[in-house]
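Kindly draft a polypeptide, keeping tokens residue-aligned:

***
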Amino acid sequence: MSSRPSHRPVRTFSWTYWLLLATALSSLVYYFIRAIARVNAVAITPTHIIDACFGFTPSTAYEILRALGPKGRAVYKEINRVDFIITPIVLREFLLNTLPPTSPRRSSVREYLANAYAVGDLVENICVAIMLNTYPRIPAPVAWTGCLGNVVKWIGLSAAVLAILYEGICALKGQKRRNNEERG
């Protein structure tokens, strides 16, 4: 057996795959904008859904679900079904394939961040589904687990977006350097 670590090749950018992912993500965003407007139209009190929070407590989750009312919770259940697996997969792939990292180390970091986002979102979605089905009783361990997933989701997503911006800055600096070398 070799003790040499195996390195996967760094991702290469594909316009076709990226456009497919961007179209899928745009469709999901469009769906969520319309669905959240439907939630707000039928909610007892205008509120945001649990997924939009950065962290929450069991009492916060209860108050949000109470404010949504029965019709709002029914729409939220539909949103959660769409968000359940499709969004974490599509957004994870989008995060990994937008300005892919140019080094194995940065690629590993980006993959870790994208996976953290996806796992956090999936955990949150499972917990939200349980809370929607058990309302008005919200088990505290489920709410706290959902909160943990929610925080991991937002931190992973934010850090992955920052990693994409970093790659973009590096690409611009590299292009500027190449342009200067061609002139000089």
The chain has one domain: 15-183.
